[in-house]
Amino acid sequence: MPRIRQADVDEVKARTNIGDIVGERVALKSAGVGSLKGLCPFHDEKSPSFHVRPQVGYYHCFGCGESGDVYSFLREMDHVSFTEAVERLAGRIGYTLHYEDGGAAPETSGRSRLYAANAAAAEFFRSQLLSAEAETGRKFLGERGFDAGAAAHFGVGYAPRGWEGMMKALTAQGFTRDELLAAGLVSQGQRGVYDRFRGRLVWPIRDVTGQTIGFGARKLYDDDQGPKYLNTPETIIYKKAQVLYGLDLAKRDISRGDPRRVVVVEGYTDVMACHLAGLTTAVATCGTAFGAEHIKVLRRVMGDDNASGEVVFTFDGDEAGQKAALRAFTEDDRFNAQTFVAVAPNGLDPCDLRLQRGDAAVRGLMDAKVPMFEFAIDRRLAGFDLATVEGQVGALRAAAPIVAEIRDRLLRPGYERVLARRLGMDPTEVRAEVERAARGASHAPARREPVEAAPESSEPVAVVPVTLANLPRTADVALERGALMGALQYGHQVDQDTLTRAFEAPFRHPALEAIRQVIVATPDRTRAGWAMDAVNAVREPYRSLAGELLMSPFPARDEEGAARSTADLCRRMILRNLDREKNELLGAVQRVPAGSDGGRALRMRLRGLDIERQRFTES
Q: Of 183, 239, 360, 453, whose CA is between 20 and 30 Å from 193?
């Protein structure tokens, strides 16, 4: 298979801002000079430990240790090959790739073909919405307040009633039936392969970067025996537990809002209604309940590292809607943001609310929201007769565990008072019951994952990786650590002879020494990307530490100050090396017999060291 020329690989990476690529999936904010940070997309965390340095084209997570360049990020996030990652970024910037030996571009992988098939299907469905047959679909949209502009904005299309209209259109474009099956666009029956979506309105479901990965389809005709809504089945690119409809359109406003707010609704038309009414941060699940994977996605987009954000769930007022809200409540503690519930008057969903009362009523849902804890308490109390003492006591016992779950020590007393008012009971009695519930929860056995007993083995125990946090707290290590950090991040702005001189003497700590060796061995420390290549060249198990040094916020106000500080650290390293050599020579002089030639040579070297030291002291 032809390979992409290395010069093109390097050029595409140099022209691509890794901050833009990562920022499509993770809300990033400033973390010091030249550094951005956000919640890690590779593991679940409460506070951000994932750092990106656009100038060096590198990312590193101080929590899980994941690190790499823009290609490795795409490979990990989208599960594509190296070649696909390069081709995707080249297409993004309009760069023409060249292949070794003049070969043609290689065939794209299965994942890329699925993305391409979904994109082609989305275009097919959109074009069909203009057909005469789609009049029923256009009428459906119009009756719900959506015009042609709204349909185009959300990419709504129409799947013809025939059995193979879409399949014929896509096979004519070169897609195979196996590819269409793998994409979930067609189904296999006893009589062969046929279109999965027929006679339905179709919404494209996109990932956070805007690529179409699946579809949701609403039936329009009474003779359709299928479910009201039919979604794409699970594929290698479509995982419904991780997908939120509308997130590609909402992510920008979510990450830039003040406060950062996400509105979670229940359906495609509800997302459309909210966005058209001005609630442009609305998203919906795709044929599954809101769960832990959805929370991970939202937290990364929100940058959910403090309690200033808001997640507002809108549910129908019926029993099913209340159950959905309580299911969301069970996941509440996974958010740092405050969670709320908004139920429209008469239990209307946002789409119907917009139809009956207008855009302002939809926006007004945010004024009517109530905290999730308050909603959960009210639902727990609903089954008791609060006019009787027995009902009050039973309700208190049922609701106290909810209040006991509140982690915020300032919020819990307030909800104790809320519960007391709801019950008409003495606040001290309520507080005592809440404390009993809290003690009961704390005494409950912790849930632990099963752990297999390790078999007897002569294999050595795994070594604890070296990190910045567990380096020795000595002056020498602190200086070496700072100098290495400065060299990796701003070494290209420092006099190269000075940099080489600073790192010519070995370090005592093996991890720092391994990094020093690579820096010294790098021939050109002024070219773009040298530091990232240096980190990748550090031997294990010290490569992760090198990544930390490259990504840690450098203590400076701006880049100019960082370069000056790096130069000063190099100067201090040189002075330390000179002092060490001087001390060794002084010891050697004392051991040499008086009047010998060796003693004179040593003393001349000592004078030279003093002169050299004076020069670096004054510089």
A: 239
User: CATH code at 504?
Assistant: 1.10.860
One domain for residues 490 and 610: yes
Measured CA to CA, the distance from residue 15 to residue 319 in angstroms comes to 54
The domain that holds 19 is classified in CATH as 3.90.580.10
pTM above 0.90, yes or no: no
Distance CA 290, CA 339 (A): 13
Task: Tally the domains of the chain.
Answer: 5
pLDDT, tens only, 390-411 = 999 999 999 998 888 877 777 8
User: Do 354 and 395 fall into the same domain?
Assistant: no
Could you read off the pLDDT of 241-267 as tens digits, one per residue? Answer: 889 999 999 998 988 877 789 999 989
Strand partners, 312: 263, 340
Write out pLDDT tens, residues 470-510. Answer: 888 888 889 999 999 999 998 888 889 889 988 988 888 88
CA gyration radius, the chain: 32
Q: Are 82 and 72 in contact (CB under 8 A)?
A: no
Boundary (domain end) residue, out of 426, 441, 456: 441
Q: What is the separation, in whole angstroms, between the first and last Cα of the chain?
A: 56
